[in-house]
């Protein structure tokens, strides 16, 4: 696969270290780029086939920019796999609920059952959701 890994500017060096440390495993290509949620994503077009998200649901102020970025990045055939740890402390349950409520305005969600998670890494508090753009319905 041809992969783009993203994070904020201050984490680019760590991404590069991880790419270097794992280059022996890469059979396609991998590059690191800055992606700040809510900002222009033109350099990431055309839409990717897959977007893998891990632990991206963590504070309320990030929800709208994250959702905007997902809408801007995805095409009709993009599959988003969202993995997150369900947290029960503080405002976390409310933030998760709001994220999935807002997400369902433009996307269809399918929870991946625990028995389909990797046996070695599965855990009751780790969730994976498959996300696709809602199909436009004609008149």
Automatic annotation (TrEMBL):
InterPro entries: Methyltransf_16, SAM-dependent_MTases_sf. Pfam families: Methyltransf_16. GO terms for molecular function: methyltransferase activity. GO terms for biological process: methylation. One of its GO terms (cellular component) is cytosol. The keyword Transferase applies. The keyword Transcription does not apply. It comes from the Eukaryota. Keywords: Methyltransferase, S-adenosyl-L-methionine, Transferase. This is MT21D methyltransferase.
């Amino acid at each position: 696969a041809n992969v783009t890994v993203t994070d904020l500017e201050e984490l680019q060096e760590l991404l590069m270290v991880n790419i270097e440390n794992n280059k022996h495993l890469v059979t396609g290509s991998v590059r690191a780029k800055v992606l700040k949620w809510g900002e222009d994503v033109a350099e990431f077009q055309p839409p990717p086939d897959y977007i893998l998200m891990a632990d991206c649901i963590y504070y309320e102020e990030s929800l709208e920019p994250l959702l905007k970025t997902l809408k801007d990045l995805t095409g009709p055939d993009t599959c988003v796999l969202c993995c997150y740890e369900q947290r029960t402390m503080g405002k976390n349950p409310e933030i998760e609920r709001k994220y999935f409520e807002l997400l369902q305005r433009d996307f269809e969600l399918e929870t991946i059952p625990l028995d389909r998670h990797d046996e070695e890494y599965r855990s009751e508090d780790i969730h994976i959701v498959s996300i696709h753009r809602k199909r436009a319905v004609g008149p």
